Amino acid sequence: MTQPFTEELIAQVGGPDWLRNKRRESLDLFNTLEVPTEGVEAWKYTRVDVDFSELRPHGKRERVTDISALPASVQKRLTSTDVGAYLVLDGPDVVYATELPTELREKGVIFTDLKTAVEQHADKVQQYLYSVVPAEVPDDTTIAAPGTTPSKSPDPSEGKFSALAAALWTNGAFVYVPRGVEVELPLGSFRVMSEAGTYTATRTLVVAEENAQVTFIDEQDSEDLPGTYAIGAVELVIKDGARLRYVSIQNWGKGVTHIQRQRGDVGRDATLNSLVVTMGGTLSRTEMQSYLRGQGSDSEMLALYFANEDQHFDHYTLQHHAAPHAHSDLLYKGVNADQSVGVFSGMIKVDLGAQKTDAYQKHRTLMLSSEAQNYSVPQLEINANDVRCSHGSTTGPVNQEALFFLRSRGIHKELAEKMLVTAFLEDVLSRVPLQSVVKYIEGIIAQKVGAA
């Protein structure tokens, strides 16, 4: 087997001994695994055609001191969103960042890029990094507690891209909120790429200690970049009684392949509210998983996507109930136009002993074209006998009576379809309390409807 990634890359991305050792293990695993194919159940409807030997890392970028030097799309977002502090990464490098407010720093809150965190906060990073999204663990196995070693995967073919992200990540965001601290304004990471035909691997680590509260917005944006790969992992640690709201907005340009695994580890009486928005890229594979470790834990998993032209969007979800009296609620809604493809595969897994589980899963798709395709696979795996679990999926075209009603009132077709699409997605958007984020998403939807 060709091994395009060698030990030399570990030296280039660097880090302390413990990190380099972990990188080597992950790289060895990557070089022994095959790219997942349709033969792997979790990748049944999505094929990634990639020749790793032809890929090269995204080039380095210099830091700028003026926001006007950033891409126009990023400037617009930074001036229209409500965040307390943010950082901008172009490929592997932080190119712009604002400081965390003094009040939060005095309370022990840390917000910086992950590379800097490894150098300045090594004890905290080493404790949690790779604890929630290790390279080798598949989606449906028990996750080890943060700081411990997880079991190895019985089906390692699913771990190819996770292993790459674990081995060669160059940067990302690090958020640490101490016990009992509440961060009112969101923190944000804005990732861009500016070099076609390259790959970038990033990693985000958010830790909310006991009874802490924080909102983190993770955005990706670029111009059209043929043959470009964005591979990443997001680790969310929510300790007992803590609350974390995590928002991911993917709006890469055409030609980008996006593969990212996001997983939350939720403690006793803790809450994870997640929103995944997929709008860009040519092929996007996003895995969002909640591991409800603690009794009374809660996970709200929301997502919306709009695929048009030849876009292929794949969402793979897991609601893993490992403790009793936990609650999870998933609502994914999508729109397919033109010749696009949408894939949803969602699992509710209830472990033995996780009694009084209350779990819901709903996926709905609106089809704007007879040439578009959609695959929906909701699943249940229940090993406890006193639970309430339900799942459902619907796929259908625009309501022609509603469209006719609007057209008969003098509304042209483009605006009428925009109104119906927005109404279809409204029950997801209505659950998001971040109005600047909602307004931005609605703007992307309006552009998509016009293109469709």
Helical run tally: 10
Structural class: alpha/beta
Domain unit count:
1
From the N-terminal CA to the C-terminal CA, the straight-line distance is 42 Å
Q: How many β-strand stretches?
A: 20
Whole-number radius of gyration?
Answer: 21 Å
CA-based shape: globular
Mean pLDDT over the residues: 90
H/E element sequence: HHEHEEHEHHHEEEEEEEEEEEEEEEEHHH
Major sheet size, sense and barrel closure: 10 strands, mixed
Give the low-pLDDT segments.
137-142, 147-157
> Approximately what portion of the residues adopt beta-strand conformation?
35-45%
Helix % is 10-25%
In short:
With 452 residues, this protein is of the alpha/beta class. It is built from ten helices and 20 strands.
How does the SSE layout of this entry go?
Layout: H1 7-13, H2 17-32, E1 56-57, H3 72-80, E2 85-90, E3 93-97, H4 102-106, E4 110-113, H5 114-120, H6 122-128, H7 160-168, E5 171-177, E6 187-193, E7 198-208, E8 213-222, E9 228-238, E10 243-251, E11 256-266, E12 271-278, E13 283-292, E14 298-307, E15 312-321, E16 327-336, E17 341-350, E18 358-367, E19 373-382, E20 388-397, H8 400-408, H9 413-429, H10 435-451
Parallel strand pairs: 1-7, 2-6, 5-7, 6-8, 7-9, 8-10, 9-11, 10-12, 11-13, 12-14, 13-15, 14-16, 15-17, 16-18, 17-19, 18-20
Antiparallel strand pairs: 2-3, 4-5
Helix pairs in contact: 2-7, 5-6, 8-9, 9-10
